[in-house]
Amino acid sequence: MSNKNRKVRLELARIYGNGCFFLRSGAEDYIEKLGTIRTYKKYKAGLKFKSKKMKVYEDILTLHHLVHRSEGGAASVDNGAIINAIAHQYLHSLPRSQEEIINDYIREWKKQMIKQSGKEVKVVLSDNIDIPFEVQAAELSIDKNNNLTLERLRQKERRKEKMEMQKLRKEYEDR
């Protein structure tokens, strides 16, 4: 784990408490209720190493980027979640659209935890400007969340445009 990831993980533990966000948020039960995503229990049951269950990896906590680094997601408190190694492996084994459903669920859980605690949180925005703010139940920075959503949509649009340009270039070269 990089030094930046380690710092973010420690800050997440300070704000939200230590432990796997995936399990603490109830994401496992949420997935089972949805019924459209392969369950964590089935995934975990299938993991074996030399015929022994991999229980030990549930104790190892890692930083999960809610927006992938490949998609411009920074190592930040806003974009991070502490999850155990098996849950991390599980999330990345899912199709990206299904992983995003679970990531959204964890984001909502983080918001609820902040609402309940009223702690001061330092949010790192994508342009690396630190903005400290006191989070109260009434002010969960809806604008910031909309901006993040808009930024993700912009990133998807840029990727789509890039793929279309590559396709056009290939068609042109094939002529």
What is the gist of this entry?
It is built from seven helices and six strands, in the order ααααββββααββα.
Please tell me about this protein's structure.
With 175 residues, the chain is of the alpha+beta class. The protein has a domain at 3-119. The protein is 55% helix and 14% strand. The protein is built from seven helices and six strands, in the order H-H-H-H-E-E-E-E-H-H-E-E-H. The chain has helices at residues 3-16, 21-24, 27-34, 40-46, 85-93, 96-117, 142-174, and strands at 48-49, 52-53, 61-65, 80-84, 120-124, 130-134. It has a two-stranded antiparallel ribbon with strand order 1-2. A two-stranded antiparallel sheet has the order 3-4. It has a two-stranded antiparallel sheet with strand order 5-6. A hairpin with a 2-residue loop joins strand 1 and strand 2. The longest helix is centred in the last third of the chain and has 33 residues, at 142-174.
Notable characteristics:
two-stranded antiparallel ribbon; alpha+beta; 7 helices
Structural class: alpha+beta
Query: SSE order in H/E notation?
Result: HHHHEEEEHHEEH
The average pLDDT score comes to 76
List low-confidence stretches: 122-149
Strand content: 5-15%
Strand order, largest beta sheet: 1-2
Summarize the main sheet: 2 strands, antiparallel
Overall spatial form: globular
Per DSSP, the total helix count is: 7
**Distance N terminus to C terminus?**
47 Å
Radius of gyration: 18 Å
Kindly state the percentage of residues in helix: 55-70%
Oligomer: single chain
The tally of strands reads 6
